[in-house]
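Title: Prediction job returns without error message
Component: structure pipeline
Severity: low
Priority: P3
Assignee: unassigned

Description:
Job completed but the reporter wants confirmation the result is attached to the right record. Sequence as submitted:
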Amino acid sequence: MLTRDTVMPLSNDFIAPPDQAAADIRAELSAGLLQQNAQTSPKYLYDALGSKLFEAICELPEYYPTRTEAAIFDVHLSDMARSVGRGSTLIDLGAGNCAKAARLFPALRPAQYVAIDISADFLRNAVEQLRQRFPQVAMMELGLDFSTTLELPERVRREQRLFFYPGSSIGNFTPVQALEFLRRVRGECQVHGQTDGGLLIGVDLVKDKQILDAAYDDALGVTASFNLNLLLHLNRVLGADFIVRDWQHCSFFDAEHSRIEMHLRARHALTVTWPDGERRFAQGESIHTENSYKYTQQGFLGLLAKAGFGNPHVWTDPDNWFMVCHAHAGSEQ
């Protein structure tokens, strides 16, 4: 587990988890593949190539979340700045190429920017470019997995912590996991008794099934490539022998659970091996690679309240496809 005491500085501004985490990752991946219904965490979709493919997905006409969220920020950023306040410690969860956070800099004028992403090399390059654009902002990169633990090193400024979690990534958690995650975020907002922290988050809302299905299975096949690239990542990290052409991308909206599911489905019966195990897949059997839960506005506000966040401010697009919410960590509803 990554704690304040075990993070390992690689430079003055870059911190990564210790090397022994690699063994834990292999154990997690192996256990997931050996479950009755094979699965992997969606965080493993984001190696260096996966991160670039996701950037491409965000440019697709079918993938509405990115442009819809961007439009909300364009229209309401000044109002958000009034709600959030200036001079924050802007903590960017799943920062990727840092572009979304960078758009906030002129309005929020953060005192410190902390970019967090599991794809450490991709993150480091992105922040280096951002430093050249905003040399007046203190910046730090954390290459870590925040999905199971969130304990920030002491060098992260305590005052006015604003956790920024755009792009509807909260949907990758089950509702129970999302509640646990939000409580961890609130705890880090209130470290050492601080009461001025908060959360600025993007949430994808329930909408027509055809729109949702198209967003995760585009005509160009970029999302399919993004999903299939996971197999190459597994080969590198786990030492497995997946053959990409043996698998096909599959995604669909499950209305009962209000979520998109992504799978990789075996085209024929096959066996995959790795140093500590093997798994036989029947034709049509799949690896469940991602969920993306969709919320109603009131449903998500209720989740925030359970996590201890209060005084929410909500902004949506005209079609109510997506919402951005700022909530305070210092006061409960």
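Comment from assignee: result matches the submitted record. The chain has a mean pLDDT of 91.
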